[in-house]
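HOLO CASE FILE
Compound: 2-OXO-4-methylpentanoic acid
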Amino acid sequence: MNQVIEFIKSDRLKEKPDLESLGFGKHFTDHMFILDYNKVQGWHSPRIVPFEPLVLSPSAMVFHYGQAIFEGLKAYKTNDGRTLLFRPDKNIERLNRSCERMCIPPIAPDLVLEAIVRLVEVERDWIPNKEGTSLYIRPFIIATEPYLGVRPASEYKFMIILSPVGAYYSGRQLVPVKIYVEDEYVRAVPGGVGHVKTSGNYAASLYAQKKAEELGYDQVLWLDGKENKYVEEVGSMNIFFKINGEVYTPKLNGSILSGITRDSVIQLVKDWGVPVHEERISIEDIFNAYKNGELEEVFGTGTAAVISPVGELKWNEHKMLLNNSETGEFSKKLYETITNIQYGKAEDKFGWTKEV
Ligand code: COI
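Model generated. Tokens follow.
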């Protein structure tokens, strides 16, 4: 069923932030999208309304049992003034996979896409046009039913908010990050929810992230939750290793998030004729490759992080310094290729961008 999106324009438009100091996720646009769910009406009443605080019952189930999921994608401004989204269909597919695992009713993909497109159109003036900046799109769903028994809620809100952003790390793109390999705490276990984008995964990561930061590291590299041996993912991104001219990344195993940038990088690298291996990778194998001088580059991939070179990996007493802690040529080439597609500067031969 086609639903008409109502629009209530804000009468208090905000001042736009300074593009030099955008950072990540600090500023929000003038409007947001809301869609409600209840058992009688299903998903209903789509609307774009002024960005403002929500009124929820303190007994809303999301506060107690964490039934919440989210997505992240970006809108880019091209040099000739067009607006491009990057693979929104993939985010929408993943949103519905997260819904299924978290017992949230799925939403018609066409309605989600229309909501994203309409909201971005309304907020077009908020898309920053300085290099390395974009408009981050954050769709999310929360359980709103007021109830304290443990079961899937019968009422939800799906919302989309927008935030003009710069680099996720350190205010600058392509600055190598330092990563701490976590060998005590785990992020996800087989059969759990690590493969979907549910808020609890991020809450569970905070303790180890805090510990890593206290030790001077930017992010945690998680090992598998069963044997604590195999590389899984980094806090906010998937991870890749370039070893002896070939590229390796952990195979999606049910506890790793299937990143859309991860998938795009795999397709790009294969297209360049460089072999890509998606397989189980032990941290010991990575250390051995390092000792033998075969570990050429390590980088993370994510919507927020784009391509993020890793300058140092710390595992137990071992410190692996990569590429003199400088951005490697391969990471740089990938960053340039993918961002050139995203900003409409290069041919989009995979059909990844959608003009809005
Ligand atoms: C994204 O890259 O969009 C993410 O969702 C990571 C986020 C936790 C900052």
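CASE NOTES: Residues 60 and 148 are 8 Å apart (CA to CA). The pocket of 2-OXO-4-methylpentanoic acid is lined by residues 72, 202, 236, 302-304 (CB under 6 Å).
CLOSED: yes
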